[in-house]
Amino acid sequence: MKTKLVALLSLLAGLNAKFTVPHLKSRVVIIAQSTAWINSQRGLLLCSGLLTSLLLLSSLPVQASNESTATDHQELLLSLNTEQRQLAGIEVSELSLQAFNLQAVATAQLIVDKDKTITIAPQLDMQILKRHVVPGEQVTQGQPLLTIGGADIAAAQADYINAATEWDRIKRMTPGTISASQRMQIEVNAELKRAILQAIMMTPAQIKALAKSPSSIGQFQLLAPINGRVQQDVATLGQVLDAGTPLMQLTDESYLWVQAELTPIQADQVDMGRNVLVRVGGRTRDGIIIGRSHEISAQTRTEQVLVRMANPGHELHAGEFAELYLAEDKQVKSVGFIVPDAALTRSGDGDWQVFIEQEGKFSAVEVTVVERQRGLSFIRGLTPKTRVVISGAFFLASEQAKAGFDIHNH
Which CATH architecture is the domain 78-96+336-403 placed in? Predict the structure, then answer.
C-alpha cells in the first residue's frame, strides 16, 4: 500500500511541475482517475486530502502571476511632480508625420516678422522730452513710449486747432452761405492738418483731445501702436532729431521669419506654402515658405528664401543662426518623425527608446532610428500626435534604471 501511495505522490508531483495553470482541468481529470484507483485499494480518505492540497497549491501561481502583472503595469509609468519636471528640464513636444531629408540642409538666420514690426519715426523735427520704457521691455498697445515735443510739433498742433475750429464753424452754417469750393477748401485744409499730426504718430484720441485743450500744444506722449518688444532704441533725453529719424522699433515676437540661403538645386525643391523644418540650437520648429527672391547672388551663388515660423513663448530671437531642412518631394517614401538626439536613450538591451507622456505620466517606447544628422534623428515606431519628451529624457532613463525595471512596448 505504501509503495502505491509513494508512486501516486510522485506522479502527482510530476504533473504539478509539468503542467501550468491552463492545464488545471486536465489535472483534475487525472486526479479523479487516480482517486478511483486508490478507492479500489481503500485509500479514499488519503487521496481526498491529497486532491485538496494539490488544488490549493495550483491556485497559488495564478495569484502570484496576477499580482506580478498588476505590479508590472504600475511600473510602466513614471510620475513626476511639477518641481521635479522643472529641475529635470522636461520638455514635451507633439509629433507630426514628416518627410524631411536631414541631408538637404541650408544655413539661415532668424529675422523679425516684418508684418508684425513697426518702426517709430515721427515725420517732423522733434526733441526727446521724457522716456517711459527701456530697451527689451515688452509693451502693450497704447502704453507710453516717449514724450516728444519741439517747435515744429507745436506749430503743427496749432495749425490743426485753427483749421479744425474753422471747419466746425463752416459746418454749422446754413448751406449756401459760402460757395461749395470755399467749403471744400476749408475741409481739405482741416484734414491736411490732421494728417500731419497722424504723421508724427498722434492717435485719433489724442488729436480729438488736442482740439478741446489748446494748452497742451508743444508736446505729446508717443504711444505703442501694437503689442511688442522694444528694440533698436536710440532715443536720448534732450536729443533733437530730424524728421523721420527712427527712435525705436516694436516687434511682436510671436512669429519670426527665417532667412535662408539655398543653392540652385535646393531652390528647385521650393514651393510657396510648403512645410520646412527649422532648427535653432537644440530646438526645432515647423515653418512655411512664404517667399523667395528668384535671384542668385553673384557673391554666394545662392538664392534667398523666407520662411514664417511660430515662436510661442518668445523663446527664439531675431539674429540667431538656424538650419533649414527641406521636405522631400511629393513621391517620397521615407516618412516618419524627427526628434532631437536628446530625446533618445538606450534601453536595457541596447535598443533605442523615447519617453512618451500620457495623462501626465511617462513611459518608454522602443523606436527605430532611420537616420541621424546634425543633432537630429529620423525615427519610426510611433503614431502622429504622440507627446514625446525632447528634453530631460536622460533623467527619466536614470529614474527608470534606479527603479530596477526595463520598459518595452513591442
Answer: Beta Barrel (2.40)
Helix (H) or strand (E) holding 225: none
Which H helix or E strand runs over 36?
helix 24-40
Write the DSSP symbol of residue 232.
Answer: S
Specify the CATH number for 100-113+253-327; select among 3.40.30.10, 3.30.565.10, 1.10.260.40, 2.40.30.170. Answer: 2.40.30.170
Task: Dig out the grid coordinates for 352 from the structure.
Answer: 533605442
pTM for the model stands at 0.60
| Cβ-based burial of 16 (10 A; exposed 0-12, middle 13-18, buried ≥19) | middle
365 forms bridges with which residues in the sheet? 354
pLDDT digits (tens, 9 = 90+) for 307-335: 999 998 898 999 999 988 887 654 455 56
Q: What are phi and psi of 237, to 5 degrees?
A: -55, 135
The phi and psi torsions of 246 (rounded to 5 degrees) equal -65, 125
| Helices of type H across 101-232 | 151-171, 180-199, 204-212
Question: Strands across the sheet with 228-231, in order?
Answer: 117-120, 248-251, 228-231, 138-139
Q: Where in the chain is the domain with CATH 2.40.30.170?
A: 100-113+253-327
What type of residue sits at position 253? E
CB atoms within 10 A of CB 311: 19
The per-residue pLDDT for range 85-119, each reduced to its tens digit, is 888 888 887 777 666 666 678 889 999 999 999 99
